[in-house]
Amino acid sequence: MMNKTKIAAAQLSPVFLNKEKTIEKACDAILEASNNGAKVIVFPEAFISGYPDWIWLVPNSKGAELNELYVKLVENAVSVPDNSTNKLCEAAKKGKISVVIGMHERNTETSGTSLFNSLLFINNDGEIAGKHRKLIPTGGERLIWSQGDGSTFKSYDTASGKIAGLICWENYMPLARNAVYETGAQILAAPTWDKSSNWLQSIQHIAREGGLFVVSTCMALHIDDIPDDYTFKHLYPEGREWINTGNSCIIDPKGQVIAGPLEAQEGIIYADIDLNTIIEAKRMFDAVGHYSRPDVFNFSVKSNQK
Predict the structure, then answer these.
(1) Which domains does the chain have, with CATH numbers?
(2) Residues 60-70: tens digit of each pLDDT
(3) Is 168 a catalytic site residue?
């Protein structure tokens, strides 16, 4: 592990509901980031193969339309491992870069037809280090994704430090954040669909609270990225160009934005980081160290799988 290194956030749009082409795009981005000197790259929430934004547009009474969309979503979801993860691992190994990527994951341990909102962690040897399943989907997302459990609160070693992940508004859960801090995470991957100013303020706070680097990665999704044959596309207001403008950024442990935000365009942003900044930040406040007060507070995670 190197104290000084470079990390990346991939603000890219998937090839909507096309797993094979999205994987190709991801592999190209992995190698591009590697060629630019990055040792870690973080992709957006649900990058494989697209955030299901129709949940905010199509009422649940439209069963036939929702069924068709869900079948397409499951067909383009990932099983861990499968041919898609093999290709991602090959790219990570070739580039000697660690990868964190958001995906729709099938529940292959049982039916294979329910989905989790998951992060896949791949190390720079091209091996699957682990995955994290979002604990609780937000609002209409609950019609798509199952709930994760405490077994995936882990940090993984990379050349840039220990990395863990929380997905979108899961980062608003104080106890989930504390669980991540207790893993010794130095980098928090925070893939998201939220690009708001409130979100940006929150992740700056989280970086300071946890004394870690935060990589907030959101897909930039243009209306033209959704094929015309998906009828929900026509439910957006006339003239709308960007479904999501992204605003991906990287925050240091003192709460300072050191890369981005990148708005209304695709791209990979980079930040040079120094892990000694974490030590500097935690001299005054260490949430799971000298500020934790275990004599006053008890904290535990039920880590058993369902």
Answers:
(1) 4-284 (3.60.110.10)
(2) 899 999 999 99
(3) yes
Summarised one tens digit per residue, pLDDT across range 145-162 is: 999 999 999 999 998 999
User: pLDDT digits over 19-34, tens only?
Assistant: 999 999 999 999 999 9
Residue 10 tokens, joined: 């991939």
Catalytic option among 19, 39, 134, 154: 134
Claim: this prediction has a pTM higher than 0.70: yes
Burial state string for 207-240 with b = 16 or more CB within 10 A and e = fewer than 16: bbbbbbbbbbbbbbbbeebbeeeeebbeeeeeee
Quote the pLDDT of residue 80: 95
| Catalytic choice (168, 170, 218, 282) | 168
Asked if 101 contacts 136 with a C-beta cutoff of 8 angstroms, the reply is no
Catalytic member of 25, 45, 195, 282: 45
Active site residue 134: yes
